[in-house]
Specification:
alpha+beta, 6 strands
């Protein structure tokens, strides 16, 4: 969980230096300077959390741009098809008019184009005028469709432009926070070995305490123990990624961020899901925590900024944060917001 523990800590020159630098680098209003190792760790976690939120926003903006690009491309393809058909029918209508002037029956290609069943194509000269009227109706409707598609394409292109601008804004925000994180990581690397070990011990104790409290409620006696076939495939995929590094925005195959891992796992299971943890929380089916089963996704923190894959026995596979790797950890080691089911 990302909360500040109040346990006492040994102050060192490195600790104080790191604390002051972090306070200066943080993209937040002025804060009290952290002093103990516990507070330093909390400040680092806050920065990592802010970076993950910013990355989620960028990934969501990028996904919207990609989807809108596909819509614009599809509309343009439909316009091309409509124009081709409009040109062909216009040509056939002219051929029909010339045939009527000569007293001939409809051209064979006109009969084929206008007949719902080629075997029963029009061959009765008395229906020429009726067919021409029908043809004109088709041409009018097709022209209207072409104009409508043109309008919709222009609107879609304008929306695409807006989304690309939003993505640029999110990318700027992400780069700013990544700069602060890089500074924090650099300062963190200057800590003495014993200080690093103590921070790791504090983190493990907090996770273990939270997990023990959660398990103590009897929750594991209620949750499901069997995954669906798709859930087993998702878990198998995630298991194969163990040990790979966390990288912001990464979707594999060599590195992942938290939602890149979960979306990749469920894509491998044959169930494409939204790219970001926020969208996974918003769009996938919610299930009560006590009814979750292996393969479900656990969403963390009030802002749905983190997600992991539940694998059973109170454990998850997650891509945690920079400097870490994909690994198995206790399911309740972070603040649980809720559970979603990709294959509901």
């Amino acid at each position: 969980m990302r909360r500040i523990l109040r346990a006492p800590g040994r102050r060192t020159a490195a600790t104080v230096t790191l604390a002051l630098a972090l306070a200066a680098a943080a993209p937040q209003p002025a804060r009290a300077e952290p002093g103990t190792l516990t507070e330093v760790r909390a400040e680092l976690e806050r920065l990592y959390h802010d970076a993950e939120v910013a990355t989620n926003r960028y990934d969501a903006a990028d996904e919207k741009v990609t989807g809108q690009e596909k819509r614009v491309h599809a509309l343009r393809s439909r316009i091309g098809a409509a124009e081709t058909r409009l040109g062909r029918l216009t040509s056939l209508a002219g051929a029909a008019a010339r045939a009527q002037y000569r007293g001939d029956s409809l051209p064979a290609e006109m009969q084929f184009a206008l007949s719902g069943n080629p075997e029963r194509a029009l061959d009765d000269a008395s229906l020429v005028r009726q067919t021409q009227r029908a043809t004109q109706g088709v041409l009018t409707a097709l022209s209207a469709t072409r104009e409508d598609l043109g309008t919709r394409t222009e609107e879609a292109a304008a929306e695409l432009k807006r989304l690309r601008a939003s993505r640029r804004d999110r990318d700027t925000e992400r780069r700013t926070i990544e700069k602060h994180i890089a500074e924090a990581k650099s300062l963190e690397s200057r800590l003495e070995k014993k200080e690093v070990e103590r921070i790791a011990a504090l983190e493990k104790k907090e996770a273990d305490d939270a997990q023990a409290t959660w398990v103590g409620t009897g929750i594991l006696d209620k949750v499901g123990t069997e995954a669906t076939p798709a859930g087993r495939k998702a878990i198998a995929f995630a298991t194969r990624q163990l040990g790979k590094p966390y990288v912001w925005g990464a979707e594999g195959p060599d590195s992942y961020d938290c939602s890149g891992l979960t979306s990749g796992a469920w894509l491998a299971a044959g169930h494409p899901i939204p790219r970001t943890s926020e969208e996974q929380w918003r769009l996938l089916k919610h299930v009560p925590v006590e009814k979750m089963r292996p393969g479900d996704l656990i969403i963390y923190f009030a802002d749905a900024s983190h997600v992991a894959l539940y694998i059973g026995d109170g454990k998850i596979i997650q891509a945690p944060r920079p400097g870490r790797w994909v690994y198995v950890s206790p399911a309740a080691s972070m603040e649980i917001l809720g559970v979603v089911r990709p294959d509901a």
